[in-house]
Amino acid sequence: MEPAVSVFKKYLGLIILGVFFLVLYQIISSPMVTTVTGVGSVSSPAKTATITFSLSSSKDNPREASNEVISNVTKVKETLKTSGIPESDIYESQVTIYPASAIKEGASGFQATSSMGIKTTQLNNLNGIITTLYGLGAVVVTQPVLEVGDKEALEKEAYALALKDAKKKANTIALKNLKFLKKIVLIQETTSPTTSTVTSKLDTVSQLEKNLPADTGVIKVSKVLTVGYKMW
Asked: Which of 27, 63, 143, 162 is deepest in the core (most CB within 10 A)?
């Protein structure tokens, strides 16, 4: 028979081992659950700008109204091409004709309209282009919509930065709570609206320091990630 001390040590070892596995099971089966928010933003100079506008004419005769709009469309296209905008980047809609009374009660005659748009890389001349369009009879000229060459690449970069920010915050929480294992169990993405800016003159310190030209456009893409973690 084994000595009583040896038996005691054997059972004590089994008890300690059992307690260890019980504690380990509790830790594994009851992880700490936390959620962090990561934010990532990237900016890039705009590559192109899109401007839309309308041409309109009011005449007593519908044909005269239509002909005047068609003539103005041709004039606008020729002027834009002369300024360096290729015809492939100029688009137009069909001329629409309707009674003037449909717009204003009691009005007589007919009104013809056509919508046009341009895409240009002349970001330092947007004000000049808009002024030219108004001078050629354009109405309702929209604010330029700026675009980057590869928005998808910007979004991926913003996503990576947001995830990096979330991981950094999660590491801080884990260290504070003595958790050494982490697992991502949830990622919810929120894309903030893309913002763009166009400055009409050198009025910012950053422009002066970087020697950026006036009317330089900047596109900013931001992403917000809600990341859920289990920690042990």
From this structure: 162
State how far the Cα of 40 lies from the Cα of 224, in Å rounded to an integer. 7
Note whether 81 and 139 are same-domain residues. yes
Query: What is the rounded radius of gyration, in angstroms, for the C-alpha atoms of the chain?
Result: 33
Helix (H) or strand (E) run with residue 80 in it: helix 62-82
219, burial (CB in 10 Å: exposed 0-12, middle 13-18, buried 19+): buried
Q: Looking at the structure, do residues 107 and 163 belong to the same domain, yes or no? A: no
Instruction: Return d(Cα 137, Cα 93) in angstroms, integer.
Output: 16
Output b/e per residue, 42-51; b: 16+ Cβ within 10 A: bebebebbeb
Q: What is the mean pLDDT of the chain?
A: 83
Dist. CA 63–CA 95, nearest whole Å = 11
In this predicted model, what pLDDT tens digit does every residue of 63-96 receive, in sequence order?
999 999 999 999 999 999 999 999 999 999 999 9
Tens-digit pLDDT profile for residues 40-72: 999 888 889 999 999 999 999 999 999 999 999
Same domain, 58 and 141: yes
SS3 119: strand
Q: Dig out the tokens for 222 from the structure.
A: 């931001």
